[in-house]
Amino acid sequence: TIKRKKKAQREYNDAIRQGHGAYLLEQDEKSQDNFIINVGALPPGKECHIHISYVSELNLVQNGSSIRCVVPTTIAPRYNPDKGGIGSPAGTTSKYIQTAPYTIEFRCRVEKANISRVSSTSHPIQIDLSQENVYVIEFAQQNTHLDRDILLDIELASNHSNTIVAVEQGAVMASFIPTKEDCQRAMNNMKTTNEFIPLQWLEQYSPEEGRTRQIFLLTDGEISNVNEVLDLCRSMATSTRIFSFGLGYSPSRSLVKGLARATNGCFVFIPPKTSVDVYVGEQLQKALQLSITNVQVEWNLGSNIMSAPTKIPPIYANDRLIVYALTNDPMILFNHDSNVKLHTDKNPIGEAKIDCIPNVSTDGTIARLAAKALILELQHSKLSSSMKQNNSGSLQSRFQEYNPSLTPATTIDEKEIIKKSIIELSLKYQILSPYTAFIGVEKRDLCDELCESTVSMDVCSAIAAPLVPTDELESLSVQELQELEQELQELEAAEFGMQCSLPSLPKSSCDFPTNTSPEQFSNAKSEYETWPTGDQNIVRYLINKQKFDGLWDLDESDLQHLAGKSWKNVSSSYDKQVLISAIVIITFETRFAAMLTMWHGVVEKARQRLLDLLGNDAKQLESLLKDIRQHCESYFRLLELEHWAS
Fold first, then answer.
1. CA 326, CA 305: separation in Å to the nearest integer?
2. Which residues sit opposite 166 in a β-bridge?
3. pLDDT at residue 320 above 60?
């Protein structure tokens, strides 16, 4: 059963002292992606099997084309500022180790509906296709160690539309994926201003409603004081959005997600040994989008409901939004008139209807997800802290003793109210929270000889850190940071109409050993002297070839690789660089459309430059691009056929 944490801990300790068996499952309050299981008074020679069930929303990645399932398996050593070094996780006595004597087995069932492909970037897998309705995925190798998180990418045959996903007694789940047109329609009537807003103290003045500043934060998440960091970011939530990147083998998901949730930003995790430009492009594209705020959900279900979350986060085009409804009416009826609408004050964004009357489930899964959404909202809510700024006297330090102390208006009572609400939700819906714990006591006959000598231990007395040599792991972390910094700067330079700057990575800030020699860097530099192979490498090659003014100046060989024909003798009234740049744009938009997040910024910059050169004649630009597209179409179709044949 689940109880308040202090009460559960007391019962656990009392049971051990009395010689009974006791089992405790907790969530760490400081770093909420750490869970602790204690097994107490296990008789000598006996085994204990622990079964944990959890339900979670899976992340939509790659611009909405894939679902990513992540199974965390390790806890990376985390810096504890209170101790000035690495501390044991979650306040336990556990020690970090490089290897563990145990291995992991993995078995996953994925429903086949709307699934085109399943793959893993973390482990070799094998897929059983023989079952009618599900794919069964297992590791292709035996004796797999817990040295990295398990990543499973599930590619969708088509993007989900707005729909009521699931229904159970007292709870409903609806999913929205607004299109770019939906968002634009909602933005058309939003209030804008041409007035210049002067820069002022950020603590005193927030941006105009609906406007935000963006921060890109790169982290391996290996700290223990997650709550302190989130509280700091939460205080800026009214004026700042953080786009967080989780790097490394096992970043703190609580931190990376919390940074984004607390500030209405977005998060992304970059698996080790993968190219970062796709992820950076996706986040940068979101940062440059106008997000829709002040969104409301209208449930037309014929019953009074509570919506979760109560405040809808900012909405981006092609991003998924999941909302829940909780009701105390178990007899709620669903028919074809039942629907859920998403809108701003005046403008509709989307509507989810029931295509067929759903089966009503009774397992409580949707209710638990809804309750978890409410708990997360409470955890990341901004406390109404305020400081009296007026009539505060002199700010010079020697006068401070004459001034009344400035204390936040927020009191401990407000935090206690939030804590109490979280506990109530946790107990009602039987889900774990930082302030509750699952406790189980196994009553034993105290006369039993097996209980004469009891043993108390932590099940996980040694925490498996990522199974990578220390020097390689440290070197990889630096490489990822430098590579990510480079991609951010390249994409930043490619965007037009934006002024922002990124601090360069200090050369002295990373004194990690590295095995990369100057010769290796030289080889990397000359890697694309010949035409690259693979779609992503071709896209990167073209991005790097773009000049500062936004145009391309490719040679005849490059053009032939791009469009499948010689352009040397093509007569055109256009300047050579204009023609070449138009060819590159059409290549991106037609041949590499699936990689939009990688090239979006450079194409927008090139289009703007071409428009300037053509005297802002949009019709002339579209006519040029149309002609180029017609010339290249047959070659692109041939490449597509060759791709599918292979």
1. 5
2. 173
3. yes
pLDDT of 409 over the 70 cut: no
pTM: 0.57
pLDDT value, residue 460: 45
| Rounded-to-integer distance, Cα 118 and Cα 488, Å | 29
| Spatial contact of 114 and 71, defined as CB atoms under 8 Å apart | no
- Least confidently predicted of 97-101, 321-325, 610-614: 97-101
Kindly report the CA angle at 468 between 466 and 474, in degrees rounded to 5? 95
How many helices (H) does the chain have, and how many strands (E)? 14, 26
Q: Residue range 509-527: average pLDDT?
A: 40
Secondary structure letter of residue 506 according to DSSP: P
Sheet holding 296-300, edge to edge: 296-300, 339-343, 348-353
Strand partners, 536: none
Q: Across the strands, what pairs with 508?
A: none
Residue 400 gets which letter from DSSP?
G
**Residue closest to 354 by CA, chosen among 332, 371, 373:** 332
Per-residue buried b or exposed e for 140-158, using 16+ beta carbons within 10 Å of the residue's own CB: eeeebebbbbbbbbbebee
Q: Give buried/exposed letters for 256-278 (b at 16+ CB in 10 A, else e).
A: bbbbbbbbbbbbbbbbbeeebbb
SS3 content of the chain, % helix, strand, coil (to 5): 35, 20, 45
Those residues with Cβ within 8 angstroms of residue 627's Cβ, 6 or more apart along the chain or in another chain: none
The amino acid occupying position 82 is: D
- Whether 472 has a pLDDT exceeding 50, the answer reads no
**Which DSSP symbol is given to 292?**
B
Pairing outcome for strands 240-247 and 171-176: unpaired
Residue 202 pLDDT exceeds 60: no
What average pLDDT does this structure show over 424-431? 93
Task: Give the three-state DSSP class for 88.
Answer: coil
